[in-house]
TrEMBL record:
Keyword Isomerase appears in the UniProt entry: no
Keywords for this protein: ATP-binding, Nucleotide-binding, Transport
Region (Disordered): 231-251
Higher taxonomy: Bacteria, Bacillati, Actinomycetota, Actinomycetes, Kitasatosporales
Name the UniProt record assigns to this protein: ABC transporter ATP-binding protein
PANTHER family with a match to the protein in the record: IMPORT ATP-BINDING PROTEIN (PTHR24220), LIPOPROTEIN-RELEASING SYSTEM ATP-BINDING PROTEIN LOLD (PTHR24220:SF689)
Taxonomic source organism: Streptomyces koelreuteriae
Family the entry assigns: Belongs to the ABC transporter superfamily.
Segments forming domain ABC transporter: 10-248
Length: 251
C-alpha cells in the first residue's frame, strides 16, 4: 500500500524511562510509541509530573531510555553514544528550554554562531546565518549584548535563533514560554507558528493548553503515557490503540 504522507522526522517505539532519585523510583515514561512527520507542529501537553520533559529529553538524546528505540530521519539511534548524539543533535535537532540556557559569558552573536561553527560552517557562513536569524527575530542591534542584559523574551528569541542556526529538521521546545510574561509568551508562540508555516517541524512540550492550541496536533500525556492524540486542523488523524493510550504508529 502506498503511503504519501510526509516522511517521519522522528519515530519512537516503546520508550521507557524511570528516574532513580532519593525517594521511590519515578516512572516518568512508561512506554511511548510516537511518529512525528515532516512539517508537523505537535504539542505534548499534560499535568505537572506527567513525564513530558523526560519524554522530550529522550527524543532529543539528552537522556537515554531504559528500553525502546528511536529513529531520526529513519536512522536508528540505538548505537549512538554521547559524542555521536552531540554531533547528530547539532545537525538534526534544535532545542529551546524554559530558562533559555544561553552561555552567559558569550555575546548574543557568539551564542548564535557557536553551534554553526561547531557544526563546521565557515565563520562567514555562520555570521550570515546569524545576521538573517537575528533580523528575522527582531534582534538586530543586540548582537554585542550579553544575555544578562536582555529581557526574558529577548533571551528566548536568541535561544530560538541558536536552535535554528543549523536549519535542523526538528525543533524541540520545552515550556519555551514558561518563564515569560504574557507579551513574551505571545511573541514566542507567534514565532513558533511562523517557523512552522514555513515548514519547520516542531514538537512543543507545555502544561498550558492554550499554548498547545497553536499546534496542529495535540498529544495529551498523563502518567508517563500518551492518553490522547488529536489532529486539530484536518488531516488524517493518527491511529490510536485504545484505552492503553499508547499510540501505534508503525510505518
Ligand atoms: N532527574 C530526575 N531524577 C529523579 N526524578 C526525576 C528526574 N526528572 C524527573 N523526575 C521525576 O519524573 C517524573 C516526571 O517528571 P517530568 O519533569 O518529566 O514531568 P513534566 O510533565 O515535564 O512535569 P512539569 O510540567 O512539572 O515540568 C516526576 O515525578 C519527576 O519528579
Amino acid at each position: 500500500m502506498s503511503d504519501d504522507r510526509p516522511a517521519p522526522v522522528l519515530r519512537a517505539e516503546g520508550l521507557v524511562k524511570t528516574h532513580h532519585g532519593e525517594g521511590a523510583p519515578a516512572h516518568a515514561v512508561r512506554g511511548v510509541d510516537l511518529c512525528v512527520r515532516q512539517g508537523e507542529f505537535v504539542a505534548i501537553t499534560g499535568p505537572s509530573g506527567a513525564g513530558k520533559s523526560t519524554l522530550l529529553h529522550l527524543l532529543g538524546g539528552l537522556q537515554r531510555p531504559d528500553a525502546g528505540h528511536l529513529w531520526l530521519d529513519g536512522e536508528s539511534t540505538d548505537t549512538y553514544g554521547e559524542a555521536r548524539w552531540a554531533v547528530e543533535r547539532r545537525k538534526r535537532i534544535g532545542i529551546v528550554f524554559q530558562f533559555f540556557n544561553l552561555v552567559s559569558s558569550l555575546s548574543v552573536a557568539d551564542n548564535v554562531e557557536l553551534p554553526a561553527l561547531l557544526a563546521g560552517s565557515s565563520p562567514k557562513r555562520a555570521r550570515t546565518e546569524r545576521e538573517q536569524l537575528l533580523a528575522e527575530l527582531g534582534l538586530t542591534g543586540k548582537e554585542r549584548s550579553m544575555p544578562g542584559e536582555l529581557s526574558g523574551g529577548e533571551q528566548q528569541r536568541v535561544a530560538l535563533a541558536r536552535a535554528l542556526v543549523n536549519h535542523p529538521p526538528l525543533l524541540l521546545a520545552d515550556e519555551p514560554a514558561g518563564s515569560l510574561d504574557s507579551k513574551g509568551t505571545r511573541e514566542v508562540m507567534r514565532l513558533l507558528s511562523r517557523f512552522h508555516q514555513r515548514g519547520q517541524t516542531i514538537l512543543l512540550v507545555t502544561h498550558d493548553a492554550r499554548l498547545a492550541s497553536a499546534a496542529d496536533r495535540v498529544i495529551s500525556f498523563f502518567d508517563g503515557r500518551i492518553a490522547d492524540d488529536a489532529e486539530l486542523d484536518g488531516g488524517t488523524p493518527p491511529r490510536r490503540s485504545g484505552i492503553s493510550g499508547v499510540l501505534e504508529l508503525k510505518d
